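Protocol step 4 of 6.
Sequence for DNA-formamidopyrimidine glycosylase (Sporocytophaga myxococcoides) entered exactly as in the expression construct, tag removed. Do not edit the line below.
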Amino acid sequence: MPELPDVSVFKDYFDKTTFKKKIKRVEVFEKRIIKGTSEKELNNVLKGKFFKKSGRYGKHLFAEIDSEAGLDIHFGMTGDLELIDDLSKIPPFTRLLFIFQDGEGLAFEDQRIFGHISLVHNFDDLISRYRLGKDALEITAEEFQETIHKRKGKIKSLLMNQSLISGLGNVYADEILFQAGIHPESKGSRIPEEKIKKLFSTMNKVLKTAIKYAAKREDFPSKFLINHRKKNEDCPDKCGKIDIIKINGRTTYFCGACQELF
Ligand SMILES: [Zn+2]
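Step 5 output, structure tokens:
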């Protein structure tokens, strides 16, 4: 499921594949993928235009068309982008296709259709529409401390709450808590200030490392939890076994030996 580092990679791919290309038209193959708009409206807005620039916020990709309009692209659970040079060979789970004047296309693929594409006015409109909290790579240490310290909820749920901090999902929340040595069921308000500082620096380090590896999880350093997400697997720190619990219905992997409960 795409999280902040994955969407960062999608942004680079989007920039590389759409730069300086005039949009000829948009084809929608699955209506459920477009939210609050129609194929006709998308074509009215996009035809003959260029994607001027893009931005990532949390798990959203914003693609600016002009000063009044842009696209919000959300990848849901299985969203992906693919440049198509032969329009007669469209990938099977293509839900929407941007067709460019040069004959190429950019497919938005999404097998499970939890992603969406919407029209928004601008970047700020996107952020306020979803009531997104600060992006995980933009929030300051002080804001992070304040956000966590005053809440009684479980730290894993706090990290995954997009209206508090935007960009983390199930896998990276587990990874960050593992590397910071904090048990995922710890209450935000009980975590000591020094540990929240550690959590903040770990969050930045993990996300930046993931982006450096182009979000290819199989290439991550072996000390990461990410490739040890199995019950009874050895902890990458060799101190115990990986355990599984459910938090807010989400399967959570952690090491009871090296992650302290507060
Ligand atoms: Zn451990």
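Step 6, annotate. The longest strand covers residues 60-66.
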